[in-house]
């Protein structure tokens, strides 16, 4: 009997995007399973791929070649991951090969990996160490001796000690239940969730900043680990700090694995191996960790569920919230979302009863929510102060510095001045490759495009009228830093993309702030979220309007979330916090709701606006971007495509096809960009329409040089 395998290629082929049929060189199905990694000939080249289905019947009429090699099992995907990839490719309309890029599968087996070791012969090990200077300096050996066990890399030294019978590799032990003392309100929420989790469960833990959501996650995680189950704990990229890792490792020292895209291939393999074995581990990871072969998964936690960085902006453009939903449903396990500012998608699902809701409205130890004061910058200007920092904020900064407390000033704009304009002819300095204004950077003395990174040496000569009359307008963090230095004799830190090039400096700066090496910190959103600086008592939002008026239906939601996070940085220690929000829109509903810390007031208003306009979460929007260097071609192509889509939809009222229109950021990196939106409540129908329209488009657009990008879960427009 012959067994046929359908395999997915790892490398994109010029041919059709599909699975290819091969036959197994043996008839015993036990030797492979779905997910197995294999080698075969494809177009006269040796290629690798994963088996996506196995069949005893031949369903392909051409010549069928044999699979040449089955690679070791540690390199295989699990059948669940195979299903996940198929779902991704259907849900986000990408190829299987593209979907496979989401998985950090290992290319090879690494020998030198981390294992869990126990000391079996302490006496002998002690003697050995006494005699060897080298062992005395080996940190992992010293740690093992101290703790009698631990996670170590299998270096040559460790291997030798294992061979000589002093150490032993063992299975990970079940961790102890963490000894977290929950507050009364935390305890209530914890017990409620624990009870509800027994049944089909998606929950939202809505807790204000500083309420102690993490303590609840860890307590729940402990319950699962202790029963030998795995826990996936996802954080946004920026959330995986040394602080957070230490906090989790404190409770689960032997059972915590950290996973993110900056790990080396060997480090990734270490995690891959252990989760695939089914060891009871908690994986603390960023969105890529959602694609690990977790063989014994019991609970998924998605912290900061509203975060935009959970959406991948490269193809396949998936949203990890949607992926973990699928995974939890597929496995029948609980999914817990958490945030201080729920996304409208999640909150609407709470209102309609699809998601269970838990609220923590008090900060830990009843620390008060900060006092928030709004400063009307129009009034300020009328009264004679046109500077960046209002008089009241100056006064408050002064007060806090006197007391030895810390101040955080938030401005989400790096560089010195964001607008460069000619005062003679009105010429507006844009990036030559993008439709984006350039920013003056004083330290580097150049103009920079924050989109493509282009740099142009500083000049005051206007390219249009040739006069020496270019002027700088507006302000970024560099200018604020300069102003502050004039006003206050204080230690000032600037934290933005320019001062934070490496991961290392990021952790260092957080430590330095904690150690009070800074009095005033001026920072962008890099510093707005999640951090805990107990002596930080005053927060100033320099320009609250910045993100309010963008042409995007989620602009309000993003502003509310960001401002709430910023406010949440104040007063996390013993001294109550205070916040000053500078704005030209003091009556705006978002600013007002941020002031009161009233999520509900904002959310109900936001949802009713969305409902009126039929935007998500009351519909789904699919977006197609058509881009190219020749604008004429882009417009023609986009018009052809829109007509094909309308035909494919048979002009059904279930789909609203909008556009083509110039996209926001209409020119980027020399490419002109137009977009088409499909707004619908019938997303499976809309997917069919998209597929059909694109298929037709491919046939008739061969002569155009266009790129087409598909986004089925667009978050930013
Ligand atoms: P959130 O994630 O909700 O903003 P955190 O979990 O970071 O809040 O908690 C805020 C601070 O309060 C942290 O420093 C945390 O260690 C402390 N905290 C919260 N709950 C407890 C608890 N039960 N026991 C000890 N410390 C706690
Ligand atoms: Zn540019």
TrEMBL record:
Q: Which organism is it from?
A: Carboxydothermus islandicus
Reaction(s) the record says it catalyses: ATP + H2O = ADP + phosphate + H(+); Couples ATP hydrolysis with the unwinding of duplex DNA by translocating in the 3'-5' direction
Q: Which residues form the Helicase C-terminal domain?
A: 433-610
For binding Zn(2+) 2, which residues are annotated in this chain's numbering?
A: 431, 434, 449, 452
Name of the protein in its database record: Replication restart protein PriA
PROSITE patterns assigned to the protein according to its UniProt record, in alphabetical order: HELICASE_ATP_BIND_1, HELICASE_CTER
- Might you give the EC number(s) for this enzyme? 5.6.2.4
Q: Where does Zn(2+) 1 bind?
A: 422, 425, 462, 465
Q: What is the lineage of its organism?
A: Bacteria, Bacillati, Bacillota, Clostridia, Thermoanaerobacterales
Task: Please give one Gene Ontology molecular function term for this protein.
Answer: ATP hydrolysis activity
Record keyword ATP-binding present: yes
**InterPro entries reported for this sequence:** DEAD/DEAH_box_helicase_dom (IPR011545), Helicase_ATP-bd (IPR014001), Helicase_C-like (IPR001650), P-loop_NTPase (IPR027417), PriA (IPR005259), PriA_3primeBD (IPR041222), PriA_3primeBD_sf (IPR042115), PriA_C (IPR041236)
Cofactor dependence: Zn(2+)
Q: Which HAMAP family match?
A: PriA
């Amino acid at each position: 009997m012959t067994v046929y395998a359908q395999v997915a290629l790892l490398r994109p082929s010029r041919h059709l995007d599909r699975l290819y049929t091969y036959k197994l060189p043996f008839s015993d199905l036990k030797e492979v399973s779905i997910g197995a990694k294999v080698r075969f000939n494809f177009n006269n080249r040796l290629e690798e791929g994963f088996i996506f289905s196995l069949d005893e019947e031949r369903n392909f009429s051409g010549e069928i070649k044999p699979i040449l090699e089955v690679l070791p099992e540690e390199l295989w995907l699990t059948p669940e991951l195979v299903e996940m990839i198929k779902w991704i490719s259907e849900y986000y309309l990408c190829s299987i090969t593209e979907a496979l890029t989401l998985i950090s599968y290992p290319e090879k087996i690494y020998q030198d990996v981390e294992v869990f070791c126990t000391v079996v012969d302490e006496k002998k090990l002690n003697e050995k160490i006494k005699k060897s200077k080298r062992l005395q300096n080996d940190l992992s050996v010293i740690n093992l001796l101290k703790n009698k066990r631990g996670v170590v890399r299998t270096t040559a030294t460790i291997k030798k000690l294992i061979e000589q019978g002093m150490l032993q590799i063992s299975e990970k032990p079940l961790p102890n239940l963490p000894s977290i003392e929950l507050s009364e309100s935390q305890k209530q929420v914890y017990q409620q969730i624990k009870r509800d989790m027994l049944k089909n469960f998606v929950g939202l833990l809505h807790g204000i900043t500083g309420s102690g959501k993490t303590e609840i996650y860890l307590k729940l995680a402990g319950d699962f680990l202790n029963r030998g189950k795995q826990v996936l704990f996802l954080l946004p990229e920026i959330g995986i700090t040394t602080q957070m890792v230490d906090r989790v490792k404190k409770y689960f020292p032997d059972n915590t694995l950290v996973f993110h895209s900056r790990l080396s291939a060997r480090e990734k393999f270490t995690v891959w191996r252990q989760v695939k074995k089914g060891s009871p581990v908690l994986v603390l990871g960023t969105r890529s960790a959602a694609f690990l072969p977790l063989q014994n998964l019991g609970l998924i936690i998605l912290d900061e569920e509203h975060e935009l960085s959970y959406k991948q902006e490269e193809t396949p453009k998936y949203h990890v919230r949607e992926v973990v939903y699928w995974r939890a449903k597929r496995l029948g396990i609980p999914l817990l979302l958490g945030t201080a500012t729920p996304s409208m998608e999640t909150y609407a699902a709470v209102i309609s009863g699809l998601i269970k809701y838990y609220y923590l409205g008090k900060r830990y130890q009843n620390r008060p929510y900060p006092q928030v004061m709004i400063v009307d910058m129009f009034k300020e200007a009328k009264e004679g102060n046109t500077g960046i920092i209002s008089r009241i904020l100056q006064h408050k900064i002064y007060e806090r510095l006197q007391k030895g407390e810390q101040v955080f000033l938030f401005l989400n704009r790096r560089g010195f001045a964001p607008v460069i304009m000619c005062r003679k002819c009105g010429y507006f300095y844009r990036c030559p490759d993008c439709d984006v204004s350039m920013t003056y950077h004083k330290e580097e003395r150049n103009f920079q495009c924050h989109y493509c990174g282009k740099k142009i040496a500083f000049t005051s000569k206007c390219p249009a009228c040739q006069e020496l009359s270019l002027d700088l307008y507006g302000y970024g963090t560099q200018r604020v830093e300069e102003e502050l230095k004039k006003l206050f004799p204080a230690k000032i830190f600037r934290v933005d993309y320019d001062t934070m090039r490496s991961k290392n400096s990021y952790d260092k700066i957080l430590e330095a702030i904690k150690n009070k090496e800074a009095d005033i910190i001026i920072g962008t959103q890099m510093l707005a979220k999640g951090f805990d600086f107990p002596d930080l008592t005053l927060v100033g939002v320099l320009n609250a309007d910045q993100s309010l008026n963008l042409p995007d239906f989620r602009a309000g939601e993003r502003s509310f979330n960001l401002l709430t996070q910023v406010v949440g940085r104040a007063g996390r220690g013993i001294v109550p916090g205070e916040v000053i929000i500078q704005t030209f829109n003091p009556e705006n509903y978002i600013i007002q709701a941020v002031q009161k810390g009233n999520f509900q007031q904002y959310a109900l208003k936001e949802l009713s606006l969305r409902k009126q306009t039929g935007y998500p979460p009351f519909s789904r929007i699919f977006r197609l971007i058509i881009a190219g260097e020749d604008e004429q071609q882009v417009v023609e192509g986009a018009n052809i495509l829109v007509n094909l889509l309308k035909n494919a939809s048979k002009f059904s009222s279930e789909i609203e096809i909008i556009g083509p229109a110039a996209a926001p950021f209409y020119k980027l990196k020399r490419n002109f960009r137009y977009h088409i939106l499909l707004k619908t409540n019938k997303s499976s129908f809309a997917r069919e329409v998209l597929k059909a329209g694109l298929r037709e488009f491919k046939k008739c657009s061969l002569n155009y040089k266009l790129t087409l990008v598909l986004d089925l879960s667009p978050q930013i427009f």
